[in-house]
Amino acid sequence: MHNVTVDEKTTTADLVVEDVLVKKGQSRAEMEKNLISEGSLAIQLLRGQMPTLQAVTLHLVRGDKPLATVRVDAKHPAPVTEFAPDLKAP
After folding, report:
1. Which long-range contacts (CB under 8 A, 24 or more apart) does 38-45 make?
2. For the segment 51-73, what is each residue's pLDDT rounded down to a tens digit?
Protein backbone atom coordinates (compact mmCIF):
# COMPACT_ATOMS: atom_id res chain seq x y z
CA MET A 1 0.00 0.00 0.00
CA HIS A 2 1.29 3.44 -0.88
CA ASN A 3 0.01 6.96 -1.46
CA VAL A 4 -2.44 6.88 1.45
CA THR A 5 -4.47 10.01 2.13
CA VAL A 6 -6.91 10.18 5.06
CA ASP A 7 -8.97 13.32 5.58
CA GLU A 8 -10.24 13.20 9.16
CA LYS A 9 -12.47 16.23 8.64
CA THR A 10 -14.46 14.62 5.81
CA THR A 11 -13.77 11.06 7.07
CA THR A 12 -12.54 9.90 3.67
CA ALA A 13 -9.57 7.84 2.57
CA ASP A 14 -7.84 7.49 -0.79
CA LEU A 15 -5.28 4.70 -1.25
CA VAL A 16 -3.13 3.19 -3.95
CA VAL A 17 -2.59 -0.55 -3.49
CA GLU A 18 -0.35 -2.86 -5.48
CA ASP A 19 -2.36 -5.78 -6.88
CA VAL A 20 -1.27 -9.26 -5.77
CA LEU A 21 -4.05 -11.53 -7.12
CA VAL A 22 -4.01 -10.99 -10.89
CA LYS A 23 -1.72 -13.58 -12.48
CA LYS A 24 -0.36 -14.18 -15.95
CA GLY A 25 -2.70 -16.13 -18.20
CA GLN A 26 -5.96 -15.26 -16.42
CA SER A 27 -9.02 -14.39 -18.46
CA ARG A 28 -10.49 -10.90 -18.13
CA ALA A 29 -13.38 -12.41 -16.11
CA GLU A 30 -10.90 -14.01 -13.66
CA MET A 31 -8.97 -10.76 -13.35
CA GLU A 32 -12.16 -8.79 -12.66
CA LYS A 33 -13.24 -11.33 -10.02
CA ASN A 34 -9.85 -11.12 -8.30
CA LEU A 35 -9.77 -7.31 -8.39
CA ILE A 36 -13.30 -7.10 -6.94
CA SER A 37 -12.30 -9.48 -4.14
CA GLU A 38 -9.00 -7.77 -3.45
CA GLY A 39 -10.53 -4.30 -3.34
CA SER A 40 -13.53 -5.31 -1.25
CA LEU A 41 -11.39 -7.14 1.32
CA ALA A 42 -8.93 -4.24 1.60
CA ILE A 43 -11.79 -1.79 2.17
CA GLN A 44 -13.39 -4.07 4.79
CA LEU A 45 -10.06 -4.31 6.63
CA LEU A 46 -9.52 -0.56 6.51
CA ARG A 47 -13.05 0.25 7.68
CA GLY A 48 -12.69 -2.32 10.46
CA GLN A 49 -9.62 -0.48 11.73
CA MET A 50 -11.04 3.00 11.05
CA PRO A 51 -14.82 2.66 11.53
CA THR A 52 -15.43 6.42 11.29
CA LEU A 53 -14.52 6.46 7.58
CA GLN A 54 -17.54 7.46 5.49
CA ALA A 55 -15.92 7.00 2.08
CA VAL A 56 -12.97 5.00 0.75
CA THR A 57 -11.46 5.03 -2.73
CA LEU A 58 -8.95 2.29 -3.43
CA HIS A 59 -6.85 2.32 -6.62
CA LEU A 60 -5.48 -1.12 -7.54
CA VAL A 61 -2.34 -0.90 -9.66
CA ARG A 62 0.44 -3.06 -11.04
CA GLY A 63 3.53 -0.89 -11.11
CA ASP A 64 2.39 2.39 -12.67
CA LYS A 65 -0.52 0.78 -14.53
CA PRO A 66 -4.03 1.27 -13.10
CA LEU A 67 -6.13 -1.91 -13.04
CA ALA A 68 -9.27 -0.94 -11.12
CA THR A 69 -10.79 1.54 -8.69
CA VAL A 70 -13.01 0.33 -5.85
CA ARG A 71 -15.21 2.77 -3.91
CA VAL A 72 -17.60 2.82 -0.99
CA ASP A 73 -19.47 5.88 0.25
CA ALA A 74 -22.85 6.95 1.60
CA LYS A 75 -24.42 6.57 -1.84
CA HIS A 76 -22.77 3.18 -2.45
CA PRO A 77 -22.40 1.30 0.86
CA ALA A 78 -21.37 -1.89 -0.98
CA PRO A 79 -18.09 -1.69 -2.93
CA VAL A 80 -18.40 -0.51 -6.55
CA THR A 81 -15.58 -1.49 -8.91
CA GLU A 82 -14.56 0.27 -12.12
CA PHE A 83 -12.00 -1.54 -14.29
CA ALA A 84 -9.33 0.04 -16.47
CA PRO A 85 -10.57 -0.11 -20.09
CA ASP A 86 -7.35 -1.83 -21.23
CA LEU A 87 -7.28 -4.42 -18.41
CA LYS A 88 -5.03 -7.30 -19.51
CA ALA A 89 -3.14 -10.04 -17.68
CA PRO A 90 0.50 -9.21 -16.93
Report:
1. 39/68, 39/70, 39/79, 39/81, 40/70, 40/79, 40/81, 42/15, 42/17, 42/70, 43/70, 43/72, 43/79
2. 999 999 999 999 889 999 999 99
CA distances from 16 to 25, 37, 41 (A): 24, 16, 14
pLDDT band, residue 20 (cuts 50/70/90): confident
Average pLDDT over residues 14-26: 90
Average pLDDT, integer, range 75-87: 91
Nearest Cα to Cα of residue 79 among 62, 61, 60, 55: 55
Q: What are phi and psi of 28, to 5 degrees?
A: -60, -40
Q: Which amino acid is at 86?
A: D
* Spatial distance between the Cα atoms of 13 and 20, rounded to a whole number of angstroms: 21
Beta strand 12-18 with 55-62 is parallel
